[in-house]
Amino acid sequence: MPTAGNAPSCAPAEAIRLEGVSCLRGPVLALDGVSLAVPAGAFVSILGPSGCGKSTLLGVVAGHIAPAAGRVLLGGAEAKALAPEARGIGMVFQNLALFPHLSAIDNVAFGPRARGAGAAEALGRARAMLARVGIGGDEAARRPDGLSGGQRQRVALARALVTRPAALLLDEPLSGLDTHLRSQMLELVLRLHKETGIATLMVTHDPAEAMAHGDILAVMNRGKVVESGPPRRLYEAPRSEFTAGFLGPANIVDAAVAGLPGSGRVLVRPEHLEINPSGAAFSRPMVVARLEYHGHEMLATLADGPLRWVARGRGFPPVGTAVVAGASRVHPLETGGSP
Amino acid sequence: MTARGGWLLVPALLACALGTAGGAALTLRMSLHAPGTGAGLYEPGSWSLANWMALADAHHGRIIATTVVTGLAVAALSTSAGYLMALAAAPLSGWRFALAVGLILAPRLCGVLAALFGLQRLLPRGWLGGVLAETWLVAPYAALVLVVALRGIDPALAAAARGLGAGPWLVLARVVWPLSLPAVALCLQLGWVWGLGAFLGPLFLGGPGEATLAVEMQRELFDLGRWPRAAADGVALSLLCVVALAASPRGARA
C-alpha cells in the first residue's frame, strides 16, 4: 500500500498530493511543511488532537484556504490556480453546512444545478443519491432542521457525492453522533467508498475509528504530519513517541532506566505485557496495583519499583498480588514526543 | 420573563401609555378641533371633522402621494446601499472591520444639520435630492443591521456552495441572499417608516411642490399657526406608518 511521505514526483495514480504545504491562520502556523499523498481510490484517515491543523489541511485541499507555501496537486495537476468550484472535490463539513433554507433534496440538487444540470435532471440525480444513503421521499422534502442528526449526516454525504467528485473530504463527519449512529454512518461511508472508488480523506480524532477503517493513517500534531502509513504498522511499530501515545494506551519508558534491552525510548503495548510470560523479551517481578474493568477487557496497572506498567487482558490476579510480568515485544522509538 | 417578574414592565408600560398613547390621543383630539377653537381636551362646540375633510383635497392628496413614494424610495435605496456596504464589510476582520464600520457610520458622526448643509451643495434640488438626503441619513442603520445578519451566516455554507460548483455570484444569489432576507425585510421596514416621516431632506433639498406630510405639518404649525390642521396631518402620517408596518414582509415583523 502506498503511503504518505516525501515521494520525489507525483504519480498520476494519486488523487491528492501535498508537498511541503504551510499555512498561517492569523499568527499561528496551522500547517508546517505538510507532505501527504492520497492514492486514487484509497481511504486515508487523518488523526490528531484538536487544533493540530487537520481541518485546515482539508480547507487547503478544497481550495477554501490558500497555503502560504508548498504545492497541492489534484489528479497530478497543480491546483493553485483552481477556484474551489473548479477542483471537483466533495466535502462533508464538521457542522455539515447544509443550507438551512433548502429542503434535503434541494440541498443535494444544489451541486448538479450549480454545474449546469437542468432542474429535472438535478432533482432526479439528487433523489437517486438520497435513496442510496437511505433518505426517502418524505424526509427528502424536509428542511435540515426537520431531520434527525443521522439523517442530516446522510444528506450531507449525498450532497458531497452527487457531483461525482474526484476526491471526498470528510471533516469529522461522525462527531456529535451516538455510538450506534456512528457505527451505522461509518458503515455507510465505507460502503459508498467501496461502491464509488472515490479517494477519501477523513479527518477524525478517534484513533479506533481511524485505525479500523483507513488504508492509510496519517498522524498530525502541531501542524505537521508526524507519521503516516498503514494503521497496523503505525500502531505496532511507530517511529515517534507521539504516535505511540496517541494511537492507544502505551508503556513508553527509557530502556536504560527500565533495564530493558536496547537503548533510548521504547514502547511496550499493554497487550504485549503478560503475566507469567513465556519467551518474553524481558520479565521481572511486579505487583498488581490497580484493576480497571472495561467490559470486553481489563486494564491492570503493575507496579515495578518506581515504574508503572499498564497491561491489557481478560483476567488478572487481585490487587496486591505479586506476579512475574514481561513483554513479548519491545519496540524502539526513533523520535521524541512532538515534532 | 416570569409572571412574578412581570411587574418590572410596569414603568415601561406607563411610559408607553403616557408618552405614546397619551401623545397620540392628544394629537387625535387636536385634529378634531374646529378651526379657530381652543386646545382643551373637552370644549363644548369645538368638535369638527373639517381638518380631516381637508386631507381629501387635491393639495393633501399630492402631499400624501409624495410621502408614500418618498417612503418607498428611501426604503429601496437605503436597503440597497446598506446591502452593498454590508457585503463589503461583513467578511473583514480585525482593524479592517473596525475601519469599515467607522466608514459606514461616518454620515452619522456629524450633526444632521451640518450634513444637510453639505448635501445641499452635492445633491440635486428637488424630490430626488430630498430622497437621497434621507437615504444618506438612514442607510448606515440599514448597513449595520445587514452586517450583523451577514456575519451571522455560517461561512461554511458559502464554502460548501463553492465546493459544489457555485461561483461567487451564484453563492450570493442562492445562499447569502435568501439567508439574509429577514434582515433585508427589516431594513425595508426601517427605511419605509423613516422615509414616510422624511422631514429634513425634503425641507432642505426639496422644492415647494415636493412637500411631505412632515414638511406640511411644520408649515401648518409654524408658518400658519393651524395646530388642528397640523394634528390631522400627524394622525394621517401615523396611520400611514401603521399601514407600512402591517404591510411589511412577515420576516421583518417576526
Question: What do these coordinates show?
Answer:
- The complex is a heterodimer of chains A (339) and B (254).
- Chain A has 339 residues and is an alpha+beta fold.
- Chain A has 2 domains: 14-242, 3-Layer(aba) Sandwich (Rossmann fold), CATH 3.40.50.300; 251-332, Beta Barrel (OB fold (Dihydrolipoamide Acetyltransferase, E2P)), CATH 2.40.50.140.
- Chain A contains 10 helices and 18 strands.
- Chain A has helices spanning 54-62, 104-114, 119-132, 137-140, 149-161, 179-196, 207-213, 231-236, 241-246, 255-258, and strands at residues 14-25, 28-39, 43-47, 69-74, 77-78, 89-92, 167-171, 199-204, 216-221, 224-229, 251-254, 265-268, 273-275, 282-293, 298-304, 307-313, 322-327, 331-332.
- In chain A, the strands form 4 sheets. A 6-stranded mixed sheet of chain A has the order 6-7-8-3-9-10, sandwiched between helices. Chain A has a 5-stranded antiparallel sheet with strand order 13-17-14-15-16, with no helix packed on it.
- In chain A, helix 6 (179-196) links the parallel strand 7 and strand 8.
- The model of chain A is unreliable at 1-11 (pLDDT under 50).
- Chain B has one domain: MetI-like fold, CATH 1.10.3720.10.
- Chain B contains 12 helices and no strands.
- Chain B has helices spanning 10-31, 50-54, 58-89, 94-105, 112-122, 127-151, 155-163, 168-196, 200-205, 213-223, 227-247, 250-253.
- The mean pLDDT of chain B is 89.
- The chains are: A alpha+beta (339), B mainly alpha (254).
- The interface between A and B is medium-sized, with 24 and 17 residues.
